[in-house]
Each structure stands twice: as structure tokens, then as C-alpha cells.
């Protein structure tokens, strides 16, 4: 998934040591909880050699997991994950909403009902444990034994959106369509249920023209960028730095 995820190039990887890049198969189960555990296990060895370690990325949830911790959640069994994934495939977000409303009405009332991944996780935990997902949400901030400085790099919105549009075109030139076509047989996997691949899969299936698929990729990526900025602004701890 190197092109569709804009993974660092070989040249970039050679300039400075990277971690958690290209370390998983599309078939591997992964979670934000596991990421938190693996990063915290790695940091002591890095801090023994370097005074500063940089975590870079756009997922606010994963950043928060390392910086302040998340509630401990049980990993669902394979059968449970497959059941919930099949539910989403067959009935979409409405099926998830219906199950979540039945299993955990308290969380249903406050969660983002457009975020299918959060709903899938809530349904998985509720089914696995036999009690509501919200019972596990303690929101206790964990203390870390390292200092944290948060920077959010920004651009003027018009420039940002223009760069997103250009980036999609460049990724197409790099062979994104061919990469996505090779992954099409595995489109049911959660790792491929992401912006870019979903639109190209719809093109392969005949639901969209290629032109419309590319337009949708640009639109959905811009919306994702806006949600990222909302998350970082709401955090209140980020120093906003505009790139000139």
C-alpha cells in the first residue's frame, strides 16, 4: 500500500531511522491500543540514545494514545471481528448504528454516527464482553515519564486544498491504480477500508467512472484534512505553525 498511504520513500527512510513503517501486512489485526503498547515499549531504548524522539502523523487518536493513554480495551476474538465486519459489509453504517443502539444506547447517544470504525470497535467490545462498550470508557489520563511538545503544521486552506488535489494526481501518475487493482481481491479487509482505495474499488466494480473516483478521492481527502484540523484545534495543546 506504499503509494496509497504515501509511505516514506527509500531515500527518506535512509536519512533517519523510522519505526512503524511497513511493519504490518494488510491481513494483520491492529488497534490503537496495540500501537500505544508497542510505542511505549520502544521509547526507552530510543531515549537512551537520543534526547528527542519525533512522532509524526495525522491520526489524532493514535497521537493521543501515546501522549495521554487510552482506556484499556480487550481485543476481540477473530470470530467477533469477522461478524461485525460482515455486518458492515452487508448493512453498512445503518447496520452498525442499529446494533450499537441495542448494545450500548449510552455510547450511541454521544458517538459520531458517521465514524464506522469507532462504531465497529464499540460493537465488537460490547459483543465480546457481554456488557456495553461505554462501561470501559474511564477517560483517565495516564502519566508519561517524558515531556511532550505538540506542533501542528498548517497552511492557508486554499493552498492546502490545492496541494491535496495535486497530490492525488501525482499518486495516480506513480501507479496508484495498478497498486489498488492488485489489492482489489482483498477489498473486504479493514485495512483497505480507507480513503482512496474505497473510491478506486468502486471504479473497478463499475459504480464510478475513473474521473469521478479521482474527484471523490480529492473531496474526501480534503474533508479528512478538515477533521484533522478540528481535532488538533480542539486539543488546545498544539502550537500551530504555518508553513511558509
Explain this structure to me?
The chain has a two-stranded parallel sheet with strand order 1-2. It has 10 helices and 2 strands; from the N terminus they run ααααααβααααβ. Helix 2 (32-47) packs across helix 3, helix 4 (78-103) packs across helix 6 and helix 9 runs antiparallel to helix 10 (210-235). It has helices at 10-15, 32-47, 60-68, 78-103, 105-108, 116-129, 157-173, 176-183, 197-205, 210-235, and strands at residues 150-154, 238-242. 55% of the residues lie in helices and 4% in strands. The protein has 244 residues and is mostly helical.
Structural classification = mainly alpha
The DSSP helix count reads: 10
- Oligomeric category: single chain
Strand content: under 5%
Described by strand count, sense and barrel closure, the largest sheet is: 2 strands, parallel
Features:
244 residues; mainly alpha; two-stranded parallel ribbon; 2 strands; 55% helix; globular
Summarize, please:
The protein is mostly helical and 244 residues long. It has helices at residues 10-15, 32-47, 60-68, 78-103, 105-108, 116-129, 157-173, 176-183, 197-205, 210-235, and strands at 150-154, 238-242.
How is the secondary structure organized here?
Layout: H1 10-15, H2 32-47, H3 60-68, H4 78-103, H5 105-108, H6 116-129, E1 150-154, H7 157-173, H8 176-183, H9 197-205, H10 210-235, E2 238-242
Parallel strand pairs: 1-2
